[in-house]
Design brief:
Order of helices and strands: HEEEEEEEE
Number of helices: 1
Helix content: under 10%
Oligomer: single chain
Strand order of the largest sheet: 1-2-3-4-5-6-7-8
Number of strands: 8
Largest sheet: 8 strands, antiparallel, barrel
Structural class: mainly beta
């Protein structure tokens, strides 16, 4: 009887001594996200020898966005390295005040879509991953000069860069939820009106997004 009791006690000790399962972040994943974009566009007007024309404006841009992402993580102890590509449809837009009072002319900016291709590096606290991210950004940007004597617009696919950070929480071995911030710079865009006459727009904005990933 004593040998049976001691054997059961040893078995219980062995079970309690087994290490807890640690979440493995390695693998390919796919997911979706929604969020909000916001920023401030600086439109700088250039026309020499015309100091009475007020052409420069700063104005807010904002709007919703949503899309998909695909990525891969590789875990080394608690360090997680990876790469991620995402694509989002967007309605990030803004409208300036009247440029010249009484003239009716204004600036408009709109981002229809954008995507990124980024490296990720983070530290895993078991099922919680804190990471930084950065890389290439690209997107469709339209800037317009409306209702003035020089109606004009410029719409292009611009290429720039992005940097950000986020947190991801594993819910199961396959599903995880994340929150992420990015700063996106799609570089300057210029509308030319004629010799030495143009407006240059800086195409920058911020994004905050929540999403879900499924790891295979």
């Amino acid at each position: 009887m004593l040998s049976l009791i001691s054997g059961q006690a040893l078995a219980a000790d062995a079970i309690s001594a087994e290490p807890a399962t640690v979440h493995d972040w390695s693998g390919v994943y796919i997911g979706g996200q929604i969020g909000y974009g916001f920023g401030r566009t600086d439109a700088a007007y250039n026309l020499p020898n015309t100091p009475t024309i007020r052409g420069s404006q700063n104005y807010d841009t904002d709007g919703f966005l949503g899309g998909i992402q695909l990525g891969y993580n590789y875990q080394i102890n608690s360090t997680v390295l990876g790469v991620e590509a995402d694509f989002s449809g967007a309605d990030i837009k803004g409208h300036s005040d009247e440029i010249n009072v009484g003239g009716g002319d204004t600036y408009d900016t709109k981002v229809d879509w954008f995507g990124t291709l980024r490296a990720r590096a983070g530290y895993a606290f078991d099922r919680t991953l804190i990471y930084g991210t950065g890389g290439l950004a690209f997107g469709s940007v339209e800037n317009q000069y409306l209702d003035g004597p020089l109606n004009s617009s410029e719409k292009n696919t611009k290429v720039g860069w992005t940097i950000g950070a986020g947190m991801e929480q594993a819910i199961t071995d396959h599903w995880s939820a994340k929150f992420e911030y990015q700063y996106v710079d799609l570089r300057d865009q210029t509308i030319d009106y004629g010799a030495n006459s143009n407006t240059t727009f800086d195409n920058t904005f911020n994004t905050v997004r929540i999403g879900m990933n499924y790891k295979f």
